[in-house]
Design goal:
three-stranded antiparallel beta sheet, globular, 58% helix, 3 strands
């Protein structure tokens, strides 16, 4: 693979990567497996003699490029956007933080966001982009709800049978209550998060926060209807 073949990142980022990195396949030197939960860490060996643990790669990249881990993670988030939005973020004309809100949108809605930004006669502020992302997400949720209602009607009219292939719907209430209590206990009590696990923990909590926010929006819309 060649950095020039990456068509989903801005040109400025591509040039920076070309000047800073060489793409090379590392060799797996050793695999560590936790006896407690089965978590695996891989020790990778590169041709230049460097050894890197899989969990330390982001820290190594941030140190090499002179950027903090949060900025590196922003670049990773940008890769989930369509190229046009990546270019907008790289141009610094529009709020990078606000544009990353579009990662929860489909490619079609991201294209709509690009069009709305380019056609907006007034100044496109951070607040404007965040509001527009929410509006587009609401449209997606509404469409999904209508599609689900159509499927529900079709299923309701279909002959009910417990033949082979029938899957009983899962009720999430008890599981949400159980795991919510456990997670709340972990977050509120004085549990220690080791320094080496901080980055991974932050990323996992950020991902969880986005998933929870999206689910709350869906449930609030159901409740409102």
């Amino acid at each position: 693979m060649n950095i020039n073949d990456m068509n989903n990142i801005p040109k400025s980022l591509k040039e920076r990567l070309e000047n800073s990195f060489i793409i090379d396949m590392p060799k797996i030197e050793r695999v560590y497996e936790s006896s407690i939960d089965g978590t695996k860490k891989i020790l990778l060996a590169f041709k230049d003699g460097n050894l890197i643990e899989s969990g330390d790669i982001i820290k190594k990249v941030s140190a090499f490029m002179g950027l903090d881990v949060r900025t590196i993670n922003k670049y990773r988030t940008l890769l989930k956007l369509i190229p046009k939005l990546q270019e907008m973020a790289a141009s610094k004309e529009y709020s990078w933080t606000a544009l990353t809100d579009a990662v929860t949108l489909s490619e079609q809605k991201q294209e709509e966001l690009v069009s709305d930004i380019l056609n907006e006669p007034e100044s496109v502020t951070k607040a404007w982009i965040i509001k527009k992302c929410r509006e587009l997400k609401q449209e997606e949720i509404k469409i999904d709800q209508e599609n689900n209602k159509g499927q529900a009607v079709t299923q309701a009219n279909a002959p009910k049978s417990k033949a082979a292939g029938y899957i009983k719907p899962k009720v999430a209430t008890k599981k949400i209550k159980k795991y919510s209590s456990e997670l709340t206990e972990v977050l509120k009590d004085e549990y220690v998060i080791p320094e080496k696990d901080l980055e991974q923990t932050i990323n996992e909590l950020e991902d969880l926060s986005k998933i929870i926010s999206e689910k709350i929006e869906v449930l609030m819309n159901r409740f409102a209807n």
